[in-house]
Design goal:
With 298 residues, the protein is α/β, with parallel strands linked by helices. The chain has helices at residues 16-26, 94-103, 148-158, 211-220, 258-264, 271-281, 284-290, and strands at residues 5-13, 30-37, 53-59, 68-74, 77-79, 86-92, 108-111, 114-118, 124-128, 138-145, 162-167, 172-176, 183-188, 201-206, 224-232, 240-246, 252-257, 296-297. The longest helix has 11 residues, at 16-26. The mean pLDDT is 94.
C-alpha cells in the first residue's frame, strides 16, 4: 500500500477560458500537459460523452510529487449540474489569495487565514492565507459520504488508506497513503450523496501488478467496478492500464499502473501553448450561435 499515491481530481468544465483563468491566474497553477481527443474515452474519463473533448492537467508541479487537477472539456456541453458530492479542495497559498483579490475573484472569509472561492462551474476551493510551502500546496480533497463508518471501512480496509484523523463532532475522517501526499477527507452529510452531472473522479496510482488483485478484491467484496481493467492509448505516449471503481456512495475512483503513468504524465513544455491554441481555435460557441442553438446542459 505504501507504493500507492494520490494523483489528481477530474473536473468537468463548461467554460474552458474562464476555467484557465482561475487555475492559472488565480491559483497560480501551471499547465502540465494538454491533449485533444476526437472521441470519448474507453474509461469515460470525460464522462458519458462520445464526441470531441480535451484534457488539461494543471498543478503546482509534476504529478510525480504533486496532486493536480484534470480539466475535461466536452465541446458540445456548456454546463453541468453540481451535486453535493464534491465538498472542496484545500490548498495553502497566500499568493492565490492576493491574486483573487487583485483580479476581483469572489472570496468569502471562513475563518482566520481561510477563504472560500469557487472555480467556474461552482466547484468550491478553500485557500489558506499562508506562504506557499516548498512541497505541494494542495492539502486535501473533501468528499461527501452518507455513512461515515461504511466509507471509512471501504477506503481504509479495502483500498489501504491510513486513517490520520477523526473528528466525531464534525463527522469527518482524514486519510491518505502517506503524510507527504494530498489527503482525502470524508464528511458525513447524513443523507444521500447527489453526484449531479458534474460528478468528478479521484485518481491514484499503484504498481501495475496490483491492478488485477485490486479488481479481484472488489469482486470478492461485492463492490462496484465501473470499468474493468482496461488499457488506454494516448497517441505518441505510453499506454496505461486502469481500473475504475465506485465507493459505497458512487464516487468514481481510478487506479492506474504507476510505471506507465509516470511516462504518460511527464510535463509537456508546450502544454500551455497547446491549451491557448485549442481555445483560440475552438469555434463551438460561434457555431451554436450561428445556428441559433445553445450548448447542451448535461
Amino acid at each position: 500500500m505504501a507504493m500507492r499515491r494520490a494523483l489528481h481530481f477530474v473536473f468537468k468544465v463548461g467554460d474552458r477560458t474562464k476555467t484557465a483563468t482561475f487555475y492559472r491566474d488565480v491559483l497560480g497553477m501551471k499547465v502540465l500537459r494538454h491533449e485533444e481527443f476526437e472521441e470519448g474515452c474507453k474509461a469515460s474519463c470525460n464522462g458519458p460523452y462520445d464526441g470531441k473533448w480535451s484534457k488539461t492537467m494543471v498543478g503546482f508541479g509534476p504529478e510525480d510529487d504533486h496532486f493536480v487537477a484534470e480539466l475535461t472539456y466536452n465541446y458540445g456541453v456548456g454546463e453541468y449540474r453540481l451535486g453535493n458530492d464534491f465538498l472542496g479542495l484545500t490548498l495553502q497559498s497566500s499568493k492565490a489569495v492576493s491574486n483573487a483579490k487583485h483580479l476581483g475573484w469572489p472570496l468569502t472569509k471562513v475563518e482566520e487565514d481561510l477563504y472560500l472561492t469557487h472555480a467556474p462551474g461552482g466547484y468550491p476551493f478553500y485557500l489558506i492565507d499562508k506562504e506557499q510551502p516548498l512541497s505541494d500546496p494542495v492539502q486535501k480533497v473533501c468528499l461527501a459520504v452518507s455513512d461515515l463508518q461504511r466509507s471509512t471501512h471501504f477506503w481504509s480496509t479495502l483500498l489501504g488508506m491510513n486513517i490520520m484523523d477523526r473528528n466525531e463532532q464534525k463527522k469527518t475522517v482524514l486519510m491518505g497513503f502517506s503524510d507527504t501526499q494530498c489527503k482525502l477527507e470524508l464528511l458525513d452529510v447524513s443523507g444521500p450523496v447527489d453526484h449531479g452531472t458534474a460528478f468528478g473522479r479521484i485518481a491514484f496510482s499503484c504498481p501495475r501488478d496490483q491492478l488485477p488483485d485490486l479488481e479481484n478484491l472488489m469482486k470478492k467484496e461485492n463492490q462496484k467496478i465501473l470499468t474493468p481493467l482496461v488499457s488506454l492509448d494516448t497517441p505518441g505516449k505510453a499506454t496505461v492500464e486502469v481500473v475504475i471503481l465506485g465507493d459505497p456512495d458512487g464516487h468514481e475512483i481510478c487506479f492506474v499502473g504507476d510505471e506507465a503513468f509516470k511516462q504518460l504524465s511527464s510535463v509537456d513544455p508546450q502544454g500551455n501553448e497547446l491549451l491557448n491554441k485549442a481555445m483560440a481555435e475552438d469555434k463551438s460557441e460561434e457555431w451554436f450561435a450561428k445556428h441559433n442553438r445553445q450548448k447542451a446542459t448535461a
